[in-house]
Structure formats: C-alpha cells, structure tokens
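Box 3.1 A note on notation
Throughout this textbook, protein chains are presented in two layers. The first layer is the amino acid sequence; the second is a token string describing backbone geometry. Keep the layers aligned when reading.
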Amino acid sequence: MNTENILVIGGTGKTGRRVVEQLKKKGIEPKIGSRNASPSFDWDDKYTWVNALNGVERMYVTYYPDLAVPGAKEKIESLTYLAKELGIKKMVLLSGKGETEAEACENIVVNSGMDY
C-alpha cells in the first residue's frame, strides 16, 4: 500500500468511511481521524489535534454532527489555522450546499492559503 500522508477526519463515519474505502482502492492507506483511532482525534479536545495532524500533507474533513451547529465555525477555523501552521498543503471540507454556517466554514478553508 502507498503510504501517502492523507488524514480523513471522521474516517469511521458514514461519509468518511466511504472516502477511506475509495483511497484504499487506489492503493492509499490513509490515516484515520476519530476518537478511537491511534493517535486519536476529538473535536472537543484540541490537544488531540496536533498528534493526529503530524506528518500529514493532505486531509479530508467531516465535522460531526454538522457545520450548522453552534461552535462549528470556531473549530473549523482553529483546525484550519493549525493545519496551515503544521505545513498541510491541502484541506477538503465536506459541506452542505446553501447552508449559511457551512458557507462560513468553507470561506475559512478557501481563504487559508492552502489548496482545497
């Protein structure tokens, strides 16, 4: 398997799991970002974020439960800032069409300077 440095946050969830499956079909073994992964990633514990993002070049992000919930924008903003600081080159954010809160999160990623 190719060990490209791709992180799938939410890689055990409904959408993230499908992304992981497609990457594996292409011979890529992604790093999984979830509370039960090693190292773990927990949206509610920023101390887990650095270990999960270390060594990653690209990432696919699903936010649980939804980008429209209060606090999502702030967490996406913090994660995006950290990703850029750690040298991550590309960030793809699963979003919802026409949702004002989701569009605000999208704009954070678009304006980050990273590929998206």
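The two ends are 25 Å apart (CA to CA). Strands lie at 6-9, 31-33, 58-61, 90-93.
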